[in-house]
Amino acid sequence: MNMTPNFNVSFERLNPEQREAVECLDGPLLVIAGPGTGKTQLLSLRAANILAKRDAAPSNILCLTYTEAGAEAMRKRLIELIGRDAYGIEVSTFHGFASSIRSRYPEYFMRPSTDTLVTSLHQQEIFDRLLKSLPFGSPLGGGSPDMPAQNIGKMIGFVSKIKRSGLDYDTLSAIAQQNIDAAAWLTEYSELLTLVCGRASAVLAERFEEEVERACGMAPTSLTRPIGCPAGTYVPYILELRDTVRRAELIDEKGKSSGYTKVRDAFFGGSNSQGRTFKIAEQSERLKTACDVARRYQSEIDQHHLYDYDDMIGDFVNAVEHNDALRQVLQDTYTYIQVDEFQDTNGAQMRIIELLCDGVDTPNIMAVGDDDQAIMRFQGATIECANQFAAEFSPRSIVLKTNYRSTPAIVELGQAIARQIEYRLDASSNKSIVAFRPQGDQVGFSENVYTGKAEEYAAVAASIKQRLEAGYLNDCEDPNEGIAVISAKHAALRSLIPFLVKENVPFSYRERQNLFASERMQTTLALLRCVAALTRGKKELASSYLPQIICATELGGDHPSSVTFALSAKRDQHGDWMAAMRESNIARVKELHDDLMQWAAEAGASPVRALLFKIVERSLGYYQDHKKQDPLGAAEFNAGIRALLTFAEGEMGDARRMGRALRLPDIVDKLDAAQKFGVSIDASIDLGTPGAVRLTSAHSSKGLEFDCVYLLDADDSTWHKGAGGMSLYPSNLLIRDEKDDDDARRLLFVAITRAKRHLELCRAGGSALQELTGLIDSCEVSAEANQLSVAIETEWRDNYVLDTPELRALLEPHTDVKFLSATALNNFVTYEPGCANSLHFPEKQIVRLPTAPTIQTEFGTIVHAMFEEIVNRMAADGEAAIETIEAEYRQQISWLDFAPEDVHRYSERFERICRAFVPWLVEHVHGYRCVTEANMQCLTTEGTPLFGFLDLLLVDDAVKTVQIVDYKTGFGKEVPAGYQRQLKFYKLLVEASPEFYGYTVTSMGDYYVEPDKTTGELRPPFATTANADDIAELEQLIDAVWSRIEHGAWDTSAFEQSGAYGLAVEEQKGCRKKADKTEVMQRAYEHWLVENPGM
Predict the structure, then answer these.
(1) Rounded to whole angstroms, how far apart are CA atoms 1093 and 1035?
(2) Domain span at 578
(3) 394 and 466 together in one domain
(4) Full-prediction pTM beyond 0.85?
(5) Phi and psi at residue 970, in whole multiples of 5°?
(6) How many domains does the chain have?
């Protein structure tokens, strides 16, 4: 075959190791290729060399890569080397290859080609149902009935990881049972549980080590023999315990037993005083339950002719394993196989390679990778596949040692990090990368440490601007690969963008952002939900979206007109925002009303996409007009609309099940369900210009290179932060989720080795990266006055903040605020950082923006009404037909206008209340004059008007005493701090009221009407007491708050600059519990409010 001139030129430039790999055409080959060692060039040249020197057609070569970007880069290079024949070489990802074979040989695949890909939302709904069907006490059960099941995300990740690992649920269940049996055997035949209950000491550590050796040595082979599964999957628990103890330094050189303590805590749960357990038993029970749920999930999607993304490879493996004819066809076709980025291969992909080589004496297969760059473990990848490759194929190994990308200083820094990676392949043991390039002008490295992130980002933006103005890109081989900013997290890159815009620095940025988290899509989502609610006649729900719509900048909204309209709606239309819009003299508001009504009229019949474009037309125009000033905003909005359309189109497949075309309200239902279940509707944001600064995450930077790299937020906690929470994998299963230090080191290694000539590191406070200790200098940078944070647009609610004298003047104190309630008092005085509660008091308590109806609120209203009727009937007749009353309110619960599954759950809660609390109520109201839903008003000594509704008063007129009963329909584990203040407020209200002049409140409590889910018993009420001094102190606080309300003094942020705040911060340092710290600051805040009434 004829080669292009590029082939000969490139071949002559190969170094000895590269040439050896390119000329090794037959048999298995493993190439360890570090960063910048010419991996893509090698793969392409070797494929060309096969065509030149072997009797092979282009179609006989299969090149498998990890990403589409990698496949595209290889195709491009092959075209340069061999011309048009390159199109005959199959260059594909593993998924692409599996899909291609399915389309060519459908007769070998069991799954019908008409099956459809399950949507993320449908997947979430299936797991929600399966998890909620688990019996009480299940390891994966629990959670609130009103919320999605707790472990949906973990189960989706579990199923995906298991399919990618090449394991099956029966094997995993067998591993779990072996673990459980091992824990039971050790409990019966060893003294380990008794030993680990003792106080840690060197003597105990030695006894523990001896007992581990003794017990593990005599364990039956059924507990030590690995269960058949892919290599590197797990270690039998008995051997894991033994080997961990052997490797650990239980006692250090000073005689301390910290090593023993670490091992003990890793393997044993419980405590010394209450007894210890083997953690593996509980972990393995979770794994068995997860396998059971996963089997039921797979059965359900198969039954409904659905499949998920990971089934594509599983179907391929199944087809080849069960059809010798297909395997032979593939082996005859692909006589030469090359696999790129082998360190990112998972077990299922490794199985593809095994099947393509099965039965071939010396398969012509080459794997190229670098274990130091194995950064995809969170997606199921494992470098154990490389060890498995070496064990199965006994390949020739070649290590590429010359880095052509970076200067010697950068290469050596990267090597210093790589040497800290604890788990490396045997083939990498002699890997020592050297630089080909000469030394550059940066021979040492230093991190800049700033006082805050705003200062850090401003300095980075200014530094980049300085480089650009000095002509830095002129010295770059490719200006598009000139400068990059790399961060461990996308959030940091997004935060940097406003600073780059301020400095007029062009940037290129690509991100997949969740539609629901997109700031620019919130108005569109509110419009869609409002229109859907209007279409269904749900006026109250529709009104809850109006505040966000009316103040939206893209719809012409602004702060003053939004506040003016909100106040007029409250005064003139009694809070009816829809009526106020219809009658408004603000042209844009009335026009919005007419548009909403028109869209609602069309929504039941119009095609979804056509109506969607009508609704977003005004916003599209706004972002187009502001594209220059806010490029990220325009890109984010456009990407959001594309994602919204893609989501709608994907869900329209549900029309077959519904028996009709989907309309806008149906799509809104799907959106609401997606948000409820946490389904990410990804919007791909991609913006930039030629020569722009590239912003990229460390994971996405793999395979890229830049002359200058800025490493953003290079602090230890950012890079070493791992996943928390419960794991579905036992400790001896090597595919578990936990991120370890090696993962962080590999990711840091990848990020740093993207740099060719210059590397800048910066962080805002925190600790230096542990891997860089002793390798770089550190420079503290003082904040400068001009390094101010760029103002980021606040959430839409801030458009209703009365934050200027002109807006505060719109309030009429005696008209808009007539009384102070316990709820209003709590909302004002509860401390939050920034004193946000008082600042937002006007829009929450005075302007009172419409809110969406919730099933919790309406359920609580019905339950309270039932209690009131029961008590009143008993007061009137001495008895009550309880069953008749319950039946009436049971019917009201069934009529609630919410999702059927939610109504069902609340019906169950209602039944629990009837069984547990109603009998208690009937018993305890006897002998008292009962006042239900008491409407109380009074004045404090200083004249502050108070108001409140009290659920139940138990009055003894003979001794002039009152007991306050406040119903609580929630069942939270912790009592909110405001409850105590609320009960004291009620005591003040009752004793100061004309109705109960001379009476004394003897008890007051919050009574939880739902029984505990575990015991079935009612929880004890939260009760409190208050003496005369307590009430006098409360009155002072009430008067201070009322003074601030009357004078519009909402801003209490001066507290955080006061001496009282400083003293509270110091006192908090002596508190161990978070609740105690909160109480200290709350007490200081209240005292400060009393001393500073805002007059």
Answers:
(1) 13
(2) 516-685
(3) no
(4) no
(5) -80, 170
(6) 6
